[in-house]
Amino acid sequence: MSxxxxxxxxxxxxxxxxxxxxxxxxxxxxxxxxxxLGRVLRSAGYATLAFDYSGHGSSxxxxxxxxxxxxxxxxxxxxxxxxxxTRQICVGHEFGATVALRAHSPAVQTYVLVSPVLGPLxxxxxxxxxxxQLSDLERHGTTTVPDDSESVRRHFTINKGTLADMSMxxxxxxxxxxxxxxLITHDAFDEETGLLDRTRDAFPLLPDGSVLDMTAPPVGIxxxxxxxxxxxxxxxAVERIAHASSSASAANLPTLPDVATQWATRWVPVGR
Length: 272
What we know:
Elements: E1 5-8, E2 16-21, H1 33-43, E3 47-51, H2 66-82, E4 87-93, H3 95-103, E5 108-114, H4 125-128, H5 131-140, E6 142-146, E7 155-159, H6 160-167, H7 171-175, E8 182-186, H8 188-193, H9 195-202, E9 211-214, H10 221-224, H11 235-245, H12 248-251, H13 256-267
């Protein structure tokens, strides 16, 4: 199985790099979030590696479940270390955070986890899949999900194991063995989906030095950003988030690029 990625090395970089881990049914760009965050971190002197997990983007086909993605992350982190970047910061988004934590890559010295999934979630699968897809899962065990993003991939392949992985995340299993400090960021939408509550429940299991921080919602969140698909969020909740994203309280919250860069330079400084 081959995986495809984009490695960018600033001329002033040393042995510190950021490795990005996208969520299920996404790609190395994470709807542009990893692109913009990567530019900020490179300007601070870090090399960056953003890659497509197997079954995603330009990488080879694979049924999307945790186990092969964990191996992908280990391979990508190992490749980065082989290039001389032995001090790594992982930025993981949603299920990409879950995968990266379970990979236990020895070169990763800290994590920045954006809206991570650290506990079980309840889904309305009828909101996620069509009747035909649900029938395929029941009769054949697999189905395909169209990729309507700008990615080169036309569809994802999932099975019943994918649904189990998405809904039955064990915080103890995910965090067990993590020994480096973790920064977790959430925005107001995560309060509605339950992700923030899962983090609060799991936080005591994290190593000393770990931090939970709230960041400002992305600009235009009600139009451009949606929570994890299938997690019920009411129209009233969307209206509350739209109001929060333009309120004075949101203006006082730090942005993700700011907190990520501050955390990176604290735990994995560019120059030793």
